[in-house]
Amino acid sequence: MAPALQKLPTGLCFDFARLASGSDEEIRQFAQKWGPLGLEKRQEEHVDRWHGYARLAQALIRFAGERVTGGAGKDEDCLVILKSFLPSREAQSIDRKGMHPAVQMAVSAAAVNNWFAQARGHGILTMVDGSLQVQPYASDLFGVLITQIAHVIARSDQTAMCAGCRYPFTPKRPIVRGVRQYCNRCRKRKVPQRDASRDWRRRVRAKEVVEDHGEHHAGATADAPS
Fold first, then answer.
1. Which of 57, 95, 216, 226 has CA atoms 20 to 30 A from the CA of 148?
2. 27-41 pLDDT, tens digit each
3. Domain identity same for 174 and 202
4. What integer pLDDT is reported at residue 221 of this predicted model?
5. Does one domain contain both 221 and 134?
6. pLDDT of residue 90
7. Whole-angstrom Cα distance, residue 13 to residue 184?
8. Separation of CA 118 from chain center
């Protein structure tokens, strides 16, 4: 049975990216709620293809988020992105350590464009309030997801990396550099409180070590022969 017609949330690509580590059943539930990707004319799609594109979505969004916060990104993410539009052997032969940041951005763009090119029922020019505007759009889930991902990458300065689950998300408040950011899911699980307690215990242990070292040093000085 086809899912009921509904408006897709603008952050659906983040939920889709989480399926990279999801189970087959989670993928089936996602497909049941939002419909098939639209890669094939028939309704049935193999979960392996869902896993593959979910991993690519995760890599693209996470790679963009890491770059904004000054990180270099994960090698595994870069490899997933390269493999999406290059032969496997050629992708593995590329040395990412010497890759200029601008080239890394171009690699992400190539992966996004390759994904969008495979979508059906997509376009770039549309009518808005009686006038033509350049506005990429898609009519199937596959195209909608990559359109959302493209917007996330283009506005990656508005994307934060969750300090808890390490997944990118769009925070409701402005990003403060040097301050941990947490997604709603981790906040509900009280991950910020857990991390704060862990940091407090770490500071207490560090203080105790310093004090013990100071007492030991003072004792050794007092016992030294004159």
1. 95
2. 999 999 998 898 776
3. no
4. 54
5. no
6. 92
7. 16
8. 22
Q: Which amino acid is present at 123?
A: G
Are 76 and 158 part of one and the same domain?
A: yes
CB atoms within 10 A of CB 33: 11
User: Is the Cβ–Cβ distance between 74 and 167 less than 8 Å?
Assistant: no
In order, the DSSP letters of 143-207 are HHHHHHHHHHHHTGGG-EEBTTT--EE--SS---TTS-B--HHHHHTTHHHHHHHHHHHHHHHHH
User: The tokens of 147 are what?
Assistant: 């359109």
> Within this chain, do residues 166 and 216 fall inside the same structural domain, yes or no?
no
pTM of this prediction?
Answer: 0.68
Three-state SS at 67: helix
| Residue carrying the six token digits 């979910």 | 54
Which phi-psi region, left, alpha or beta, contains residue 93 (left: φ > 0; alpha: ψ -120 to 50)? alpha
What span, in angstroms and rounded, lies between the C-alpha atoms of 207 and 209?
5
What pLDDT score does 51 carry?
Answer: 94
